[in-house]
Amino acid sequence: MAFSPSLVAIGAVVLVMAVALPQLMARVRDSNFHELAASIQDDSFYYLLPAFHFKSKLFFTFDGITPSYGFQPMYELVLAGLAVFFSDFESFFRGAMMMGLVLHVLTSVLITCVVLRAVDARAAWLQWVQRGAAVVAGLFYFTRGTVLLNSMTLKENALTSFVLAGVLLIATAQASTPVERRRLSMWVGLSLSALLLCRMLPTTLVVLGVVGLMALWRWRRPGVLLASFVLPLVLWFGYATLAFGHPLPMSARVKALGSHSAPITWDVVSNQGWAYLKAVFTFAVGLPSKMFVPQVDAGLLVTNSRQGSLWLALTVVALAALMAAGVMAAVQARRSRDGSPGPGALVVMLLAVLTAGILAACVAQGALIATRRPGEDSYYIWYLFDLPVLISVSLGLAVARGLSTMERARQARREQSSWKAPSVLVATLGGVLVASALAVFIARVPREYRKLSALQPFATFDENSQAWQHTMIRAGLWLKQNVQLQPGERVACFSCGALGMLFPGAVLNLDGLANDEAGRFTLDRTTPIARYVEQVRPRYYIDVHTWHFDDSKVEMRPLHILPFPYQWKPGYVIAELTYKP
Fold first, then answer.
1. Deepest of 197, 322, 433, 561, by most Cβ within 10 A of its Cβ?
2. Which string of DSSP letters, residue by residue, matches 22-41?
3. CB of 471 within 8 A of CB of 562?
4. Residue 290 to residues 279, 440, 574: CA-CA distances in angstroms?
5. DSSP 3-state assignment of 569?
6. What is the per-residue pLDDT across 451-475, written as a single tens digit (0 to 9) for each?
7. Which of 379, 381, 380 is nearest to 146 (CA)?
8. Of 18, 79, 13, nearest in space to 49 by CA
9. What is the pTM of this model?
């Protein structure tokens, strides 16, 4: 039985990943649950708990009482569907983390498939080398330790990256009949709608614009494209308006409007914007970055070597050369008889435009974060779904396109009997593409693949750690062990994620990220959040923020204080609340 060369390449990347998967799956399956819960961002629980409650409450709620719209819709819908298969929260938690790992693997496979679209060398042996580059591109994504751990923090990154890779695969497909053009236009519209519902960001808008315009230019089906894109958005935003009273997430409104923001100036763009771009770029290629990954052993998977700046520079060179190759492909397509690029040239053109647009959008995102949420840019790790995918695809395309480019330059030299300036330029570009990308692949992929075996299950919960999530869980466990909550008593907090897991149905979120009622108080800057607390009258309080109750009718009696090494004093407070008449 004969297999197609593309299936052989896909089978190869799956086989190599399968060797490392048991170790990663053991991390999810065998770890101490509280330690595993401390290895994710607090905001992740604002997705998990509403999704788990939906099957019994039939509405999205973090605390089981008040509506909660603090999530990105697409990922929340997937989680709600997954929750149906689990009877308890712990097994659902592990299942959701396993889903993130599986999505990371599937994204690696899709990246291999996208690069395979650029296999267009004339020589059969050279085509096999190009397919090998596609395999390594998938493995490069799989072995990015920062990206892998980020996919296991139960945020929307893994799903969004998977959808983006699917968008690239669909957008570069070939259609020869009207039926195929309509079908592909429909799938592009649906996938772009899914991407927007996964993550509403400036970088997402770049993907929507570039891919949407390319689909319109190639297939000329504006009605099908627009209808398939708009329909899912209308359905969700209509539901959200009816269920929550507003179409956009309350968490996004609180973060964007609930705090005082500074104007975006050129100084902000040139300083914070570019600094953010550098941070996300280094994170995307697996190098040390200020972007925060909460796992305590994250350093094991991050390549911290003296050659880090060299690998980063080579990656930048490969991306710049690929963008130049995209311009060259566009010029050659215009000069061709039918004015359309070949499959390989099309992939290169798309990636060149997307890379340039997303790099610029990252600078804009950095400026927005600096002016809206100053000092918090390192926490916005869930914004990084696009660059890891694009860099992996681009490095694979750099090798594949570079080989084709050098082959054509060599053929032109034979026909002209000597090297002409255009042929020399083309050959040089091809050499830069191949050399820079191959250097990164050879130096990084085998070494970082071996590092995956260093990830071990968490045997016990670290009772001495003063990291934020550990401290929050320890505070919740202390209250649970020392105080018997009575029916109807609530535990108030600003950072509430893990506490919602420990006190189901009893936690009151105060910052509005997981409680729409509190969110409305936050957006109304004339009314302090203490007024909301006076209305709801929770019995206990766990957090580091204590000044919110100054000059109010709320009195706080500390029961226990855990050491917390950040700027808040006296530490992580567990307190009983009483109310003045």
1. 433
2. HHHHHHHHHS-HHHHHTTS-
3. yes
4. 6, 22, 30
5. coil
6. 888 889 999 998 888 888 999 999 9
7. 381
8. 79
9. 0.94
